[in-house]
Specification:
With 54 residues, the chain is mainly alpha-helical. It has 1 helix and no strands. The radius of gyration is 22 Å and the shape is rod-shaped. 0% of the residues are buried. InterPro entries: DUF7512.
């Protein structure tokens, strides 16, 4: 029967996939924190001064 075999993992491949996943998580968290710190100031600078414009 084709397609029912359990694939065997090469340890190097598993380490590579784990490293890429870890890097993606670190970048996601890092950019999220950076956006929270810099985002409001940057938007205020780009869009303009106050939020009282009616």
């Amino acid at each position: 029967m084709g397609g029912l075999e359990v694939p065997t993992w090469d340890p190097e491949t598993a380490i590579l996939i784990g490293t890429i996943l870890f890097e993606a998580i670190v970048l996601y968290v890092g950019y999220g924190g950076l956006e929270r710190l810099v985002g409001p100031r940057l938007m205020k600078l780009l869009v303009g001064g106050g939020s009282d414009a009616r």
